[in-house]
């Protein structure tokens, strides 16, 4: 059903973990198990969790690990089938209409009746709605990948409920129906990953067709592993301090705690500034890398000294 690469990389849960690690994604047992089941049960996987915890990056990493094409559909309010499935190449149709208009006299010249003339023109009408005039979008493109693909439907919770209904046929049968052409079935069923930041509740019909996976904020050890993989030049001392500080920051009363994406950005920021260790001044100057809301930054001003000192002491204790 799938290429040899896919079979090898998805032969077991441990194989998936190793394949993802080879492209820089540190997986957990839960994540690898969900992907293993999604592949072998031919079911989409719906990944929910806060923004920045690695949901989109997981789909990108799976495509890299398998050597598959990545087809990404970014969802938004008002998304419809012309952007998700297909649309007709209206410019090309218009050009051919002009050509047909210029040749119409020649085409019907030998027709011996009005019905015969209409018959000849009807054949050209069918041509205008053939595959040659179709512009495939991500959902249809995924169905047509002979070598397999990863279909990422990103932030599906930002779309409207009507779009969920559009997805049901694709997710249930891996096929797309085009009224003028018919049903196009996937040559190789794509591995479908849907992500959601829980901005709205998704419908039961969509959820029933998917395996569910929740990715939350990482624990300290997992965060260490991710940062080692993504920012390998960071010293163990600074790494320990960073992880301790971020873990404590997530326990504070703020609206948007930093995700692993912000941790990676902060680690790169500290390297760029040649920071040997954390200090209060450095944390204050770079806090906007971790916190994206001004209200959260202001809320934490009085706590930075204590959190920084605690991170320093904890890293010394760990050593």
- Strand proportion, as a percent range, falls in 5-15%
Distance between the termini: 50 Å
Please give the CATH architecture of the largest domain: 3-Layer(aba) Sandwich
CATH topology assignment of the largest domain: Rossmann fold
Query: Helix-strand pattern, N to C?
Result: HHHEHEHEHHEHEHEEEHEHHHHHH
Radius of gyration: 26 Å
In CATH, what is the homologous superfamily of the largest domain?
P-loop containing nucleotide triphosphate hydrolases
CATH class of the largest domain: Alpha Beta
Specify the helix fraction band.
40-55%
Count of strand segments: 9
Number of helices: 16
- How many strands, which pairing sense, and closed or not: the largest β-sheet? 5 strands, parallel
Structural class: alpha/beta
Mean pLDDT: 86
Read across the widest sheet, the strand sequence of neighbours is 2-5-8-1-9
Q: Tell me the count of domains.
A: 3
Low-confidence stretches: 1-5
Query: What does the overall shape look like?
Result: elongated
Any overview of this molecule?
The protein is an alpha/beta fold. It has three domains: 4-82 and 138-214, P-loop containing nucleotide triphosphate hydrolases (Rossmann fold, 3-Layer(aba) Sandwich), CATH 3.40.50.300; 86-134, no CATH class; 220-312, Cyclin A, domain 1 (Orthogonal Bundle). The chain has 16 helices and nine strands. It has helices at residues 4-9, 13-22, 29-41, 55-66, 81-84, 90-108, 114-128, 138-143, 161-173, 204-208, 220-230, 236-249, 260-272, 280-290, 294-300, 304-318; strands at residues 45-48, 69-74, 86-88, 134-136, 149-154, 175-178, 182-185, 191-196, 211-214. Strands 2-5-8-1-9 form a five-stranded parallel beta sheet. It has a two-stranded antiparallel sheet with strand order 3-4. Strand 6 (175-178) and strand 7 (182-185) form a beta hairpin. Helix 2 packs across helix 3. The longest helix is centred in the first third of the chain and has 19 residues, at 90-108. It starts with a helix and ends with a helix.
């Amino acid at each position: 059903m799938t290429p040899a690469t896919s079979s090898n990389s998805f032969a077991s849960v441990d194989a998936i973990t190793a394949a993802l690690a080879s492209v820089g994604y540190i997986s957990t047992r839960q994540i690898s198990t969900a992907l293993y089941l999604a592949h072998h049960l031919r079911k989409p996987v719906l990944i929910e969790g806060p923004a920045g915890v690695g949901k989109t990056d997981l789909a990108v990493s799976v495509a890299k690990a398998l050597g598959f094409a990545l087809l990404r559909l970014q969802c938004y309010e008002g998304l419809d089938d012309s952007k998700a499935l297909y649309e007709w190449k209206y410019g090309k149709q218009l050009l051919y209409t002009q050509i047909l208009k210029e040749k119409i006299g020649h085409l019907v010249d030998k027709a011996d009746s009005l019905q015969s003339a209409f018959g000849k023109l009807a054949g050209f009408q069918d041509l205008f709605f053939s595959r040659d005039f179709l512009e495939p979008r991500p959902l249809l493109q995924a169905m047509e990948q002979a070598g397999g693909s990863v279909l990422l439907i990103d932030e599906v919770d930002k779309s409207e409920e009507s779009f969920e209904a559009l997805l049901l046929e694709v997710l249930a049968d891996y096929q797309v129906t085009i009224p003028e052409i018919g049903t196009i079935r996937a040559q190789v069923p794509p591995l479908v990953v849907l992500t959601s930041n829980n901005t709205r509740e998704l419908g039961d019909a969509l959820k029933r067709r998917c395996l569910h996976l929740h990715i939350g904020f990482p624990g300290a050890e997992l965060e260490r592993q991710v940062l080692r993989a993504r920012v390998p030049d960071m010293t163990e001392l600074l790494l320990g301090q960073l992880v301790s500080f971020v873990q404590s920051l997530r326990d504070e009363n703020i609206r948007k705690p930093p995700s692993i994406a912000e941790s990676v950005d902060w680690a790169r920021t500290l390297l760029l500034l040649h920071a040997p260790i954390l200090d209060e001044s450095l944390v204050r100057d770079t806090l906007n890398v971790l916190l994206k809301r001004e209200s959260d930054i202001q809320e934490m001003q009085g706590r930075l000294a204590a959190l920084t000192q605690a991170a320093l002491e904890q890293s010394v204790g760990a050593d």
